[in-house]
Specification:
Helix content: 10-25%
Oligomer: single chain
Mean pLDDT: 85
Radius of gyration: 16 Å
CATH topology: Jelly Rolls
Order of helices and strands: HEEEE
Largest sheet: 4 strands, antiparallel
Length: 113
């Protein structure tokens, strides 16, 4: 019986995590994420949604929201972003790029509602 309970618990966790990645409920949370010089991170979101973007870094990083039609929002090189952006219908990427020469340590919270 224990085995069935464990399988059920794992399935339940999977359903909850999948629901968190659906349109309107997208989220990313990462604390202490390392990003080497010259590398970037990309997170995909579906719109329409109000996207909360919180990024903090020990060194300046480039933060942009881009879609098929181009750049929706460019935050430039910064150590902190804390804002809400309305994403229109479609697929969007939040891109964080370390164009400096030091390793970036990031705290990231991106949530669609």
């Amino acid at each position: 019986m224990r085995g069935r309970s464990a399988v059920f618990a794992l399935l339940l966790v999977g359903v909850v995590l999948a629901a968190g990645c659906m349109e309107g409920g997208n989220f990313v949370y990462s604390k202490g994420k390392s990003l080497s010089p010259g590398y970037s991170l990309s997170y995909v979101f579906s719109g329409p949604v109000n996207l909360t973007v919180k990024v903090s870094s020990n060194v300046p990083v480039e933060v942009k929201i881009v879609g098929d039609s181009g750049v929706l929002k460019d935050f430039g090189e910064t150590t902190k972003v804390d804002t809400v952006v309305q994403l229109p219908k479609g697929k969007w990427k939040v891109i964080i790029k370390n164009s400096g020469d030091e390793k970036a340590v990031l705290d990231i919270e991106i949530r669609g509602r």
